[in-house]
Amino acid sequence: MSGDGAVVVAAVEAVADRIQAERDHLTDLDSAIGDADHGGNMARGWAEAAEAVADLADPDAQTAVKTAGKTVLSEVGGAAGPLYGGSLVFASQELEGGVTPETAVAFAETYLEKVQDRGDASVGAGTMVDALTPAVHTFKKSIETDELPPLEALTKAVAAAEAGVQFTVPIRASKGRASYLGWRSVGHQDPGATSTLYIMEELLAVAAGH
Ligand code: ADP
Ligand code: MG
Ligand code: MG
């Protein structure tokens, strides 16, 4: 296996390992403001996704992302399954021509749009959108306006996602299970924003070659 497809396969494996390592932490975050299943659901789904992409014969990037997304969609369940999995499947079309800075920006934007479409959450609702939105906007600006090298753009995007995760702590959630708590969601870090950050950190690590 070679090229962009191999990088995607490596990225899915890195994400699966990281989510497994953070499983209990994600469960703890979801037990505070949800139903304590985010760690378990995500760990199982991404482990299955890693197996599914490893079984592909010399896939291109689009096929590998689509396969991972389909698996996450069918295995993760809850709110996160369709949001992560369905959006990955949909955004995978942007990688038809392989992974370049331009297609990576298109992929990121389409992924964000799909998450927003499906979940109907804006920034400030206390969800994964709070980490994803600043990350995608920062990535796009870094590539298109500032013309930074892709690794630097991704590094800045990860920093923006990290700030977005912190932003979920003091706000009151208005979407997802955490919204059922009303003001009691204040002071809690959103599990989906946190898993989004972990995924982005792994993308950066794989892109940087370590
Ligand atoms: P569930 O809440 O169904 O148990 P998970 O625990 O797996 O699903 O995922 C919860 C995460 O999903 C939340 O932390 C939040 O980031 C995200 N989420 C929930 N609802 C929405 C939504 N409408 N839009 C965007 N993200 C959402
Ligand atoms: Mg949950
Ligand atoms: Mg649930």
TrEMBL record:
A GO term for molecular function: glycerone kinase activity
Keyword Hydrolase: no
Pfam families xref list: Dak2
Residue span, DhaL domain: 6-205
UniProt keyword annotations, A-Z: Kinase, Transferase
Membrane spanning residue stretches: none
Protein's GO biological process: glycerol catabolic process
GO cellular component, one term: cytosol
InterPro entries reported for this sequence: DhaK_L_YcgS (IPR012737), DhaL_dom (IPR004007), DhaL_dom_sf (IPR036117), Dihydroxyacetone_Kinase (IPR050861)
The keyword Kinase belongs to this UniProt entry's keyword annotation: yes
Entry-linked PANTHER family: TRIOKINASE/FMN CYCLASE (PTHR28629), TRIOKINASE_FMN CYCLASE (PTHR28629:SF4)
NCBIfam families hit by this protein: dha_L_ycgS (TIGR02365)
Record protein name field: Dihydroxyacetone kinase subunit L
Organism of provenance: Halonotius pteroides
Phylogenetic lineage: Archaea, Methanobacteriati, Methanobacteriota, Stenosarchaea group, Halobacteria
